[in-house]
Amino acid sequence: MPHKLITTLDLMRHGEPVGGRKYRGQQDDPLSEKGWAQMCQAVGDHCPWQAIVSSPLLRCADFARELAARHGLPLDMDDRLVELGFGAWEGRTADELTAEDPEVLVRFRRDPVAHAPPGAEPLARFRGRILEAWNTLLERHRGKQVLVIAHAGVIRMMVAQVLGIPLPYIFRLQVPSAGITRLRVESDGDDLFPQLLFHAGIL
């Protein structure tokens, strides 16, 4: 009987970027001082990982490089882990959008597939590239514990894949700044059994 392997993916959202809360998407703002502090506090001095994989956007990559250098860990930048592109909403706040159309965010939250921002990356296409990145993570880091530093949308999509959440419902998942979501994948030959683990901090 094949030996079961456990792959642990700790998905960490970046901290607060310069400019605060907005539909940032692929706009490449760096971390604010508060954002750096949030991520440092979330990780502390723990280092249970064998590798770090990061989105190349500054709000993820800068901290990933610092953490990898501090602990001597291999670091991969994966372009597929960039945030969902929000099209015409890029760089705009919720208040700015609702000032123009009070119902625009209500429609989006009810059905982000049917009411996507103008010019936004389609959610189905976004799901496709995130699933490609997910499969690569499981292939390259089988049996290891890996820290993945990415964005709320990326984390939502990976959790949705594990739990079978339909695309229109993914924005019901709230991902806090510098929050960490742990996914555990048991592999028994070609059979994979992914699970979402709830926890407080890195153990």
TrEMBL record:
Protein name: Phosphoglycerate kinase
Single GO MF annotation: kinase activity
SUPFAM superfamilies in alphabetical order: Phosphoglycerate mutase-like
Assigned keywords, A-Z: Kinase, Transferase
Any one GO cellular component localisation term in the record: cytoplasm
Species name: Sulfuricaulis limicola
One Pfam family named in its UniProt record: His_Phos_1
